[in-house]
Amino acid sequence: MEETRQEMEEVLERSQRVVEETTQEVVQSRQTLQQHQQNLQQKDQTIQQKDQTIQQKDRIIQQERQQSEQKDRLLQQERQRVRELEQNPEGEFQRRLREMEEEIRRLSARSQRAMCKICLVEEVEVLFNPCNHTVSCQECAQSLTDDNLPPSQRKCPMCREDIQGTVRMFFA
């Protein structure tokens, strides 16, 4: 009995050692697994960062491509313009000349119109009766024929004749 008891104790001790060894192995395996998981998480983060960097670089490349395409379009337009000028150099010159002549005509037409002799800003548009002088704009004519002025001061600025009435003129 004692022998069996001793055998049983030995078996129990062996079993405990096996359980302890197994427990240690499990603990070590868990630690190793946790380290692997941490390594995987770090690698995942690194991959995400690299993905973000790649996306940023892709956006930059896309912007540069768009800028390049825009420059190419401008360059093509400029080349086309140069070809047109080479084929018809007088065409561009003629176009610019026409634009300048048109501007000169427009400016000279305005300067040829009579300017108000009183304010020197607006165009002449009022005729004074009875002298028929046309020397002032509407606003200046009103100031010369104001009802608050005594009749002795309502005079044509050109001939000093009394103004009896006005006619508004419309020039084409």
Question: What can you tell me about this protein's structure?
Answer:
With 172 residues, the chain is mainly alpha-helical. It has a domain at 113-168: Herpes Virus-1 (2-Layer Sandwich). The protein is 68% helix and 5% strand. The protein contains three helices and two strands; from the N terminus they run ααβαβ. It has helices spanning 2-87, 89-112, 138-144; strands spanning 126-129, 165-168. It has a two-stranded antiparallel ribbon. Helix 1 crosses helix 2. The mean pLDDT is 88.
Radius of gyration: 51 Å
User: Helical element count?
Assistant: 3
Read across the widest sheet, the strand sequence of neighbours is 1-2
CATH topology of the domain at 113-168: Herpes Virus-1
Average pLDDT metric: 88
User: Unreliable stretches, pLDDT < 50, 5 or more residues?
Assistant: none
- The helix/strand order is HHEHE
> Mind telling me the CATH class of the domain at 113-168?
Alpha Beta
Total strands: 2
Query: How far do the termini sit from each other?
Result: 142 Å
Fraction in helix: 55-70%
CATH architecture of the domain at 113-168: 2-Layer Sandwich
